[in-house]
Amino acid sequence: MRKTHNPAMSEADPLPAPPRPTAPQSAPARALERLGLTTPEALALHLPLRYEDETRLTPVARARPGVAVVVEGQIEDARVESRPRRQFLVTLRDAAGDRLILRFVHFYPSHQKTLAPGQRVRAHGEVRPGFFGHEMIHPTFKVVDADAPLADSLTPVYPSSAQLPQAYLRKAVASGLQRADLAEILPPNTVPAGLPPLRQALAFLHHPPADARLAPLEDRSHPAWQRLKFEELLAQQLSQMQARRARAQLAAPELPSREGALREQLLAALPFALTDAQQRVCAEIAADLATGRPMHRLLQGDVGAGKTVVAALSAAVAMDAGWQCALMAPTEILAEQHFAKLVQWLEPLGVKVAWLTGSRKGKARKQALDALASGGAALAVGTHAVIQDDVQFARLGLAIVDEQHRFGVEQRLRLRRKLQAEGRATLEPHLLMMSATPIPRTLAMTYYADLEVSTLDQLPPGRTPIVTKVFADTRRTEVIERIRDEVARGRQVYWVCPLIEESDGEDLSGKSMAELRNVTETHALLSEALPGVQVGLLHGRLPPVEKATVMAGFSAGVLGVLVATTVIEVGVDVPNASLMVIEHADRFGLAQLHQLRGRVGRGSVASVCVLLYSGPLSETGKQRLRAMVETTDGFEIARRDLEIRGPGDFMGARQSGDALLRFADVTQDAALLAQARHVAPLLLDRHPQAAAAQVARWLGQRAEFLKA
Ligand code: ADP
Ligand code: MG
Predict the structure, then answer these.
(1) Is residue 182 part of a domain?
(2) I want to staple 597 with a disulfide (CB 3.0 to 4.6 A). Which of 172, 415, 504, 609 is the partner?
(3) Is the Cα torsion angle 14, 15, 16, 18 positive or negative in sign?
(4) Whose CA is nearest to atom 5 of ligand 1?
(5) Mutate to test the pocket of ligand 1, among 406, 456, 573 (most ligand atoms within 8 A of CB)
């Protein structure tokens, strides 16, 4: 019964349409293409979501409600009713004489033609008690002869689209599976014991035998699934190891740390001593910079851990050796803040800093470009404007990317190309990436296997932990009272409203209009409720100059309250701020809430974060808010975030959708991941051709993105 007939899947003719001579492509063929199922290999890897058991018949009397079964019987009666609504009712009588109604609320003349009295029919669906007795609603069905054979394997149900009937897709996949090149690439001793060959694994997953247990297929623990996951994880490890080895072949400037030089002067001038963790990561970075091979290091540290000063000290090492350095931040506000800080730290020591952002144009931009091209400026600070093609460095030795997870894949690829271009002119620059979103270990091993990772696992001393409270929106007045007290004590307050996208020049959508209203209305409301307090307003739609002025006003303490969208999410550093109110907190992601909260608790004063929510909370909303109350540890937050969201979503920013793992789930498949990590170097060393073929088969174009 492989050729089922599902009217819900298609409009006019429920059977797969034969190719029409005039139109080169049928609608289902186009739908296949839209799903990317254009090669036999792609089809073979299009795996079932679930299975239907059409290998045996169930007597009507034995069908249990809620369990899909196949029943067979003779049609006794078929008619269109108009009450209680228009519908097509077919009465089926099975061998035992029990009756079942097949009910169609959507139907076509073809149904009436096929399901005529006297026909023998097999119907697949769930039986339930209904208006007319036992019934099946919109079953899939097929007219059969009396002794037609049953399916000998479970029937796969594939992810599909409205234009693509399952029957058509099943045929296409079965044919793809036949034609696909699934030759074993991996030498047998590199595959974990007990896993079937690839072709066998796929054949099994597409057509499990009638007696296969469904549970290990559904939870993907079956050896056939394990084989697929292993293949995929291995390809990904190989690709990252290849990238790492290729980089090790490149030459980079040797940047030894010298005594008594800029780095030490900067250290001496700082108003604080480095924490042990900062000293350790500085040493790790300095060791990389001295090797003459390009560094590719991720510095992760919770919000407020003090990454900026590590960046400045690393830049000082590069500049000491006579090379330039570029520091890039994801937003203008953050870039501006870095610029101010670095100028304050480094200009007294004789370093010239160039500032580049998208909004800095004309003469100012030209001057900055000239200074970098001539080598007059040793340091460039800015947004992604720093890596535009027309920005030429005399001798770029080190690029630093702050909050790197906030840059899109496109910008990361552009950065890589920029570094390669600069590298062709001189030597490949070193790269230091910084992120306040700690990546759980298994994810780091999967997605960042081509990176060295340094971790700042210690906050600077004297911080008082932030207390987080969750309030219903109805308690706003209380919260405003609290703001009044805080400001009266000379402290400052953030009030965050949901986001207005910081994008250039495009029209405001209805949604962002509403959000704009939200943030401006809140600003008006707080200004009125807090007479005598200066309330600032900051959102992505303000012109850059205005943003800068508002931010400067808040930094200087002139503004007591700052009403802002998430433009302040990353990096903003005003240690005197001690209260953060987040409105509609349930709409934010966990990582984002943690980042926002990190704007307070940056000084020695005890800080509070208030999470306001309105209306009933969703289950995940509740989990997120609970996590925020229970912990302020970024690693714990990341772990819970991964748990709530799953790894695909978690890594979304880096992987841009289709570069994600399709089959493996690194939270569940840690053991396979460990094996893939073990096998990858052996394969690269002993079977380089197999390694290359494996990467090409599984990643193809996506390998590029994984390196971004
Ligand atoms: P993040 O890691 O979130 O980027 P920052 O670099 O902005 O953190 O540092 C947070 C605050 O801590 C800043 O005000 C910074 O000057 C301060 N800071 C950094 N390192 C230390 C330290 N070792 N002792 C005291 N304060 C420090
Ligand atoms: Mg920072």
Answers:
(1) no
(2) 609
(3) negative
(4) 306
(5) 573
**Interval 161-186: pLDDT, tens:** 888 888 899 999 999 999 999 999 99
**What pLDDT sits at residue 503?**
41
From CA 300, how far away is CA 457, in angstroms rounded?
9
Q: What is the pLDDT of residues 338-381, one digit of tens each?
A: 888 899 999 999 999 999 988 878 898 999 999 999 999 999 99
Q: What whole-number distance in Å separates Cα of residue 170 and Cα of residue 46? A: 10
Q: Please indicate, yes or no, whether residues 231 and 320 belong to a single structural domain of this protein.
A: no
Task: Report the CATH number at residue 267.
Answer: 3.40.50.300
| Straight-line distance from the first to the last Cα atom of the chain, in angstroms, rounded to the nearest whole number | 47
- Beta strands 577-582; 608-613: pairing state: parallel
The closest ligand to the CA of 570 turns out to be 2
- Answering whether pTM is above 0.85, one says no
List the domain range (segments joined by +) for residue 121.
50-157
244 with 266, same domain: the answer is no
- Overall number of domains in the chain: 4
Query: Do residue 141 and residue 84 come from a single domain?
Result: yes
Instruction: Judge if 447 and 505 occupy the same domain.
Output: no
CB 182 within 8 A of CB 202: yes
DSSP bridge pairs for 581 = 495, 610
As for ligand 1, residues whose beta carbon falls within 6 Å of it are: 272, 274-275, 278, 301, 303-309, 436, 460, 571, 573, 575, 602
The average pLDDT across 419-444 equals 83
Q: Are 531 and 560 within one domain?
A: yes
- List the residue whose alpha carbon is closest to atom 22 of ligand 1: 460
CA dihedral sign of residues 53, 54, 55, 57 = positive
Whether 436 is covered by a domain: the verdict is yes
The answer on pLDDT for 672 being more than 50 is: yes
Q: Are 131 and 105 in contact (CB under 8 A)?
A: no
How much distance in Å is there from the Cα of 309 to the middle of ligand 1? 7
Asked whether the predicted pLDDT for residue 653 surpasses 70, the reply is: no
- Give the CA distances from residue 419 to residues 48, 105, 133, in Å, rounded to whole numbers and listed in that order: 43, 62, 72
* Nearest atom in ligand 1 to 273's CA: 23
Asked if 702 and 661 touch (Cβ cutoff 8 Å), the reply is no
User: In the chain, how long is the greatest CA-to-CA distance?
Assistant: 99
> Please, how many CA atoms are within 13 Å of residue 389, restricted to the half-sphere of its CB?
0
Residues 503 and 591 in one domain: yes
Whether residue 436 sits in one domain with residue 293? yes
**141 and 232 fall within a common domain:** no
Does some domain include residue 415? yes
Indicate the length of the chain as a whole number. Answer: 708
**Residue 605 CA, ligand 1 centroid: distance in Å:** 15
For residue 186, tell me if it sits in a domain.
Answer: no
Distance 599 CA to ligand 1 centre (A): 12
